[in-house]
Amino acid sequence: MLQLQNVTPFAAERAVQFDRHGGHLWVVVVKATYDLHADGTLSLSKQQEPVKTHPEYFGEPGHSTLRRDAEIVFAHPGSAIMVNGSAYAPEDEPLRELDVGISIGSIHRVIRVFGARRWDSGLFGLRMTDPELFSRWPLRYEFAYGGTSSRQKDGFSDNPLGMGFFVDRDDARDGKLPHIEDPRHLIKSWKDRPAPAGMNAIPPLWPARARFSGTTDEQWITTRAPLVPDDFDVAFFNSASPGMATAVPLRGGERVVLAHLTPSAKMTFRLPRVHFNLLTTIGGRTIRQHAHLDRVIVEPDDSRLVMVWRSVLACGRDARRVQVTYVDTKRDLHTGRFYGV
Q1: Among 181, 210, 238, which residue terminates a domain?
Q2: Separation of alpha carbons 248 and 92, rounded Å
Q3: Tens digit of each residue's pLDDT (9 = 90 or more) over 135-149
Q4: Which of 124, 136, 280, 316 is most buried by its number of CB atoms within 10 A?
Q5: DSSP conformation letters of 264-286
């Protein structure tokens, strides 16, 4: 009963969740970890990262960039793409600013990284200093626009971790500017309030995601909890930075181009295309399920690629009818190798 037989080389986990009407959903998640080599080739990692059931941060939860969001969800729109890494100056030659980016499928994302800057007093108000030289800079939301001010309790809700948020000119004087910006919307004045630029995952409580969570008021508590609110949108489960998710799930095989995210300046590879056999026995019947590629996580600093697939089966009002799900990967008939390994 409710068993999972995983004979793939990947990590896998299962759970029973509720749909918005209270029906039971049998959710199976498969997660693959690959070693990403300097020449753009991939190999199956000896250490397969387990499926995350709770968010994981780079530092203190809620006070550092989100590294992994919870991966067992009952729905997910398209494929979310996240990059955890650093900007690298070409040939390790220090420079003052650099565009870095990723291209994968329909997604083409570029951010601009600056050396340290601050607001300085000038003849006509505050002016930003020239960026200092740098050769490598971590890409985290701590270095994007946002943050808090000693003069305002709440700070910048779209990114409370960041830097560059000021409430008045005196507050901004000698204040630091963000290191990471959107090149299409560069900061020109301390008064500017741009959306934070980044490629990491977005935490669930930030407005970019929280606006999809629905209304959790007293009526919800008394009439629907623990079900999701009536106005809940499954876009809430998309933890990608705005503009970093596809409308249709990726299939694998897509070309990936990394620009200045590695010491080699440019890296190109293709996502592994993995074909799963997902067979669930429920109520004496065997059903073949389809796996959706929910997340692609690229971590060049750690030479790592992570891919997360999800499959969901509606079970009516009794998930206990599920006996077992068997997970395997199809073999290449010509080489005998597993696809994507």
Answers
A1: 181
A2: 38
A3: 999 999 999 999 998
A4: 280
A5: TSEEEEE-----EEEEEEETTEE
